[in-house]
Amino acid sequence: MIQRTDIIWLAEVDSTNRFALDNFRWFESGTMIAASAQSAGYGTKGRAWLSPPDVNVYASLVLRDFPFPVHSAARIGSLAVLRVLRMHEPGLPLSVKWPNDILCGHKKIAGVLCETRDNGLVIGIGININMDREAALRASSNATSLFIETGKRQPDVGIFVSELRNTALDLLEQARSKGDSELYEEWKSENYLSGRSVSIRCPDQNTVSGLVVDFSPDGAIILVENPSGNIVEIRSGDLLGY
Q: Are 109 and 95 in contact, with CB atoms under 8 Å apart?
């Protein structure tokens, strides 16, 4: 069993994911690295993640000997964020946006980034908790926070870190005991893009447009391409419109 008491709190770090990866060999599986601020936070493809002090969750969960593919870890992170936010605000219109964002309505409230190291991986999670509108606009025109959505400031951002860790480890134990197909179905049912028309720029710089009809177990988004009607599976890319 993974110990559930190991949370390492840092006042500031360049990035909790980078810190976890650089020191991976020293951490037990289940260790959570959390920081009050990040000086060089990053998301997918190294994009900067604005990380002002004392207002948001910046955390990374270390998992050794992870028995599933990386996309399963991303599902665990995304579902953990959904469950924890719903504990606090059950009425929020939350969803997952492929490949790694959490939306509230049409705006991004959180992100998940999984990176591998040696025989395991790190699940990085950023959630905008008490960020105000001005700071959110500096982050992105499409960013929001729990405070912006509810008008309520959370007195203790740290409680979200503890809840995220416990929820993610619960999901991991569920996957280990039953397989990860249930998590796949739950993640798929939460996806914002289902039934929507999207445009995606693929790694080869070609753009594919079509209707989202499904998501594969390995994390690919499945489109009916316009105008050909071909079925296309895309495993990575940038959403240009949705």
A: no
Confidence of residue 1 (pLDDT cuts 50, 70, 90): very low
- Say if residue 133 is in the same domain as residue 17: yes
The per-residue pLDDT for range 122-167, each reduced to its tens digit, is 999 999 999 999 988 888 889 999 999 999 999 999 999 999 999 9
Give the full edge-to-edge strand order of the sheet including 221-225. Answer: 231-234, 221-225, 207-215, 197-201, 238-241
Residues 136 and 16 in one domain: yes
Q: What is the DSSP string of 2-67?
A: --S--EEEES-BS-HHHHHHHTGGGSPTT-EEEES-BSS-B-GGG-B----TTSSEEEEEEEES--
